[in-house]
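Hello Y.,

Per our agreement to keep a running log of every chain we model this quarter, I'm adding this entry. I've kept the format consistent with earlier entries: sequence first, then predicted structure.
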Amino acid sequence: MLKWLWARWYVAIALLLLVLWLGVLVAYRLGAQGISVRSRSGQTVNLDFGRQHDHTWVAVGPGVGLELDAYNKQLHGTIARVKPGIPGLCWVCGDNVPAGGLAMVKYRQGDWYFKAPQDYRNNSEATRGRRPASRAYILTIAYNVATNERVIVAADATVEAQATELRNRGLTASVANLLTLDPAWHVLSMQREGCVIFNAAFVVLALLLALIAVPVELLRARWRRQRERQRIAPAIVRGN
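Predicted structure for the entry above:
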């Protein structure tokens, strides 16, 4: 067995890579922050899963999710469309991925999620941004998850004009309407960036190994066939 593995060193590397891959997956699924490996020389190699960037996502409408954050202890979030994630990675990294931000929100009234009016005239992305989707995301002051109504204001809209838009829909940016956790929310399974990155790294390593192993095996098979023909040829000659 050892002789066979020595002759096919890439199989041994593939097995080692598989064991490492499974070990990292188990650590990730168990909620580890990362993995650290210390060498004999005392140097430490760290694999950080980037958990600090992982936020809870909840479903708030068909194909619409809310990414929650509690910066400065005040709950706020981002409304975004969600879609099924990358096949295969769904088994280990989550089922969904963001498919476009719709609005930054801090308040809620019924099906409406919204933010307080603010002055965007000095916001370069809102006034001169090259991406329409990015400008719309910044300038959206309210979004209705039931009707998909999206209130987008002009970049030069005054704070009072924005407040009027909110009042016309019965919305008030007050302490009473601050975003709070809702027991009815369903937590979404999202593909996390850290998980996708380390799995992609292992896939790339596996593909590189395959690019080496497949040609070697093809050459080995060709060499065996040539040896077999060379062994059989003298016997045929003697038989004649």
